[in-house]
């Protein structure tokens, strides 16, 4: 698919999303406030009950800043609004129209997925600015350089998430419903990816295993890069590991796609 | 342009017993059965030809079209569309074909048609000038210029179908697959779409395969038909030939001036053919093809005729007759059956 078509698909998807104005704003506010609010109160309670001032290397304001970054960047990575779209295409038979187009289906869906990040991007800018101006958080580590590094990391993580997610979505060629697999993936990302608690709270051996799994790249890694917790070497090492996981996921996804094509009946709702 | 040789498709589907017991059993073990949808069909379609695929529901028409459009893989057999194997999905082929599925929306629901067309222009790399000319022509012929900037989901079914047609033909495909393009449309919209397809064929000479349950689509658009039953071809030939073979009679319909005396139906009239209807205003007689001229003259001479029409047997009835001979009936709708209560002057 040419970059021109890619950008056009992206733009169409963004416009399509903006056509639902009320949903856009409700989702932008409610989605963020619910997720961030729960995390805030949960960790406030944990700090209060434990009587500790530092947990897993984070003070309470540091923890709040970490979760602010995790929630906002995590949405840019996972593009939750778009999850399940590939499986729905297969199940409902809407894949037919894409198979007739002279364009790669995966590239098409990725462009659509990026276009769907409109709400996540609005949240990032809006709530990031509010947090910066209103909350008194220890943001000394955040510099233009870490923001730029986090941007690159988030883009790479978004692609990795798409490739991993596709493996689950392609199961729809064989199973009628992949919702349970989707839920399992979300829980794995939540627990093993640092979305529920920073990975530093896990015991040393578990943490060293988690460092090599792909899940942390969806939440913890981009957030810590953004906050300036990861140096240049650690960042490059992380990007390389993401590249390896990306390649594995891409190859496995391709295999499933080609096998799935033989199963596909093009029927649906 | 399209060559098909021994194409077969067998689906493997789960078989589940009814009820809770069956559902519980299926959690652990599912029986799979093989369901042949297309059983080794062979045919070819040339440039400028519209071939009508006719068959009851589940006959395998749509499966065949999906294989030829490259959407699904066959179990065995081969096919060539413009020299390419369709399910290999070479972009050089995909730029030259188009698929219109009346039962499935292909356009983006939340966008105005104009935005969808711009996206398709990019996908198919249609030059700007050609795009403008084609869009102007297609939207003009289909009379939807005013609706181009309305969101697809706000359009009526007929308008949406016209937009689907425009979207499918913007890149001027050389091969077009039309899977029930008029389904659910009212008579006016059906007619507009048929006229449009004929006009497109006249100008661009594509090879077209049409599936439809509406016999008027077949009658108006196709010179050649392929009748398919349970995945097998039972007839492949010209529409005229099938009519001549299976419709060995015609219907003479005479509209009469009302007279005080009742219309006489006697032995002489019955000797001409079968009396289908007889009322003070109408006399309807089915006669052998060879007797049409003589019977018409006889009726004109004997009755106070205001108007007289000679009609071919409805093609839907002919197809049903073919199926009945081969042990299958049903699945076809004659002209005018799209909208409930609608009638057409062509109904015998």
Describe the structure.
- The complex is a heterodimer of chains A (269) and B (348).
- Chain A is mainly α and 269 residues long.
- Chain A has helices spanning 3-18, 21-50, 60-78, 85-92, 95-100, 105-115, 118-134, 144-170, 179-192, 204-210, 220-226, 232-263.
- Chain B is α/β, with parallel strands linked by helices.
- In chain B, 35% of the residues lie in helices and 27% in strands.
- In chain B, the strands form 3 sheets. Chain B has a 6-stranded mixed beta sheet, sandwiched between helices.
- In chain B, helix 5 (128-141) runs antiparallel to helix 6 (157-169).
- Chain B is globular.
- The chains are: A mainly alpha (269), B alpha/beta (348).
- The A-B interface holds A 4-5, 8-9, 12, 15-16, 19-20, 93-97, 99-103, 261-262, 264-266 and B 11, 66, 69-73, 89, 91-92, 94-95, 97-99, 101, 104, 106, 108, 110-111, 115-116, 118-119, 122-124, 151.
What would a concise description of this structure say?
The complex is a heterodimer of chains A (269) and B (348). With 269 residues, chain A is mostly helical.
List keywords for this structure.
heterodimer; A: 269 residues; mainly alpha; 12 helices; globular; B: 348 residues; alpha/beta; 4-stranded antiparallel beta sheet; 13 strands; 35% helix; disordered C terminus
Topology at a glance:
The complex is a heterodimer of chains A (269) and B (348).
Chain A: H1 3-18, H2 21-50, H3 60-78, H4 85-92, H5 95-100, H6 105-115, H7 118-134, H8 144-170, H9 179-192, H10 204-210, H11 220-226, H12 232-263
Chain B: E1 2-15, H1 19-28, E2 31-45, E3 50-54, H2 61-68, E4 76-81, H3 91-94, E5 97-101, H4 113-124, H5 128-141, H6 157-169, E6 175-179, H7 187-204, E7 207-211, H8 215-221, E8 224-229, E9 232-238, H9 239-246, E10 249-256, H10 267-272, E11 274-278, E12 282-288, H11 292-302, E13 305-311, H12 315-325
Parallel strand pairs in B: 3-7, 3-8, 5-6, 6-7
Antiparallel strand pairs in B: 1-2, 1-4, 8-9, 10-12, 10-13, 11-12
Helix pairs in contact in B: 5-6
């Amino acid at each position: 698919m040419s970059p021109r078509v890619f950008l056009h698909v992206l733009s169409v998807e963004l416009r399509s999303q903006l056509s639902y104005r009320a949903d856009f704003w409700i989702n932008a506010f409610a989605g963020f406030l619910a997720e961030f609010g729960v995390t805030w109160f949960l960790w406030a309670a944990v700090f209060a009950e434990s009587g500790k001032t530092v947990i897993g290397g984070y003070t309470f304001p540091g923890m709040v800043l970490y979760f602010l970054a995790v929630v906002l960047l995590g949405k840019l990575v996972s593009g939750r609004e778009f999850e399940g779209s590939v499986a729905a295409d297969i199940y409902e038979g809407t894949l037919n129209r894409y198979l007739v187009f002279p364009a790669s289906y995966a590239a098409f869906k990725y462009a659509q997925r990026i276009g769907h990040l409109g709400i996540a991007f609005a949240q990032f800018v809006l709530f990031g600015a509010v947090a910066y101006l209103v909350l008194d958080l220890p943001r000394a580590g955040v510099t233009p350089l870490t923001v730029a590094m986090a941007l690159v990391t988030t883009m790479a993580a978004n692609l990795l998430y798409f490739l991993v997610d596709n493996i689950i979505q392609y199961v729809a060629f064989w199973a009628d419903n992949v919702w349970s697999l989707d839920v399992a993936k979300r829980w794995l990302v939540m627990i093993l990816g640092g979305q529920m608690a920073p990975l530093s709270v896990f015991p040393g051996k578990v943490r060293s295993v988690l460092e090599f799994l792909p899940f942390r790249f969806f939440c913890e890694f981009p957030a810590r890069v953004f906050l300036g917790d990861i140096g240049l070497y650690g960042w490059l090492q992380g990007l390389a590991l993401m590249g390896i996981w990306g390649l594995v996921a891409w190859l496995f996804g391709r295999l499933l796609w080609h096998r799935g094509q033989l199963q596909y009946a093009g029927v649906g709702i | 342009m399209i060559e098909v040789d021994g194409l077969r498709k067998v689906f493997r589907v789960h078989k589940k017993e009814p009820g809770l017991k069956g559902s519980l059993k299926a959690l652990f073990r599912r029986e799979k059965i093989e369901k042949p949808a297309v059983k080794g069909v062979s045919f070819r379609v040339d440039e400028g030809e519209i071939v009508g695929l006719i068959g009851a529901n589940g006959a395998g028409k749509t499966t065949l079209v999906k294989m030829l459009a490259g959407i699904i893989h066959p179990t065995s057999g081969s096919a060539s569309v413009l020299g390419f194997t369709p399910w290999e999905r070479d972009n050089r082929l995909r730029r030259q074909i188009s698929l219109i599925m009346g039962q499935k929306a292909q356009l983006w629901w939340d966008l105005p048609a104009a935005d969808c067309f711009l996206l398709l222009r990019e996908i198919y790399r249609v030059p700007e000038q050609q795009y403008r000319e084609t869009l102007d022509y297609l939207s003009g012929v289909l009379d939807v210029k005013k609706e181009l900037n309305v969101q697809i989901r706000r359009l009526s079914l007929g308008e949406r179908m016209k937009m689907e047609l425009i979207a499918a033909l913007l890149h001027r495909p050389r091969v077009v697959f039309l899977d029930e393009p008029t389904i659910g449309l009212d008579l006016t919209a059906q007619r507009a779409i048929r006229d449009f397809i004929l006009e497109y064929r006249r100008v661009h000479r594509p090879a077209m395969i049409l599936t439809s349950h509406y016999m008027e689509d077949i009658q108006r658009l196709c010179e050649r038909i392929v009748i398919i039953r349970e995945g097998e071809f039972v007839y492949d030939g010209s529409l005229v030939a099938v009519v001549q073979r299976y419709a060995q009679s015609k219907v003479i319909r005479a509209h009469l001036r009302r007279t005080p005396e009742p219309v006489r139906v006697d032995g002489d009239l019955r000797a001409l053919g079968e009396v289908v209807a007889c009322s003070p205003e109408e006399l309807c007689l089915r006669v052998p093809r060879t007797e049409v001229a003589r019977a018409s003259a006889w009726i004109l001479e004997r009755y106070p005729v205001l108007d007289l029409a000679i009609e071919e047997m409805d093609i839907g009835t002919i197809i049903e007759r073919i199926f009945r001979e081969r042990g299958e009936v049903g699945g076809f709708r004659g002209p005018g059956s799209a909208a409930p209560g609608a009638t057409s002057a062509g109904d015998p």
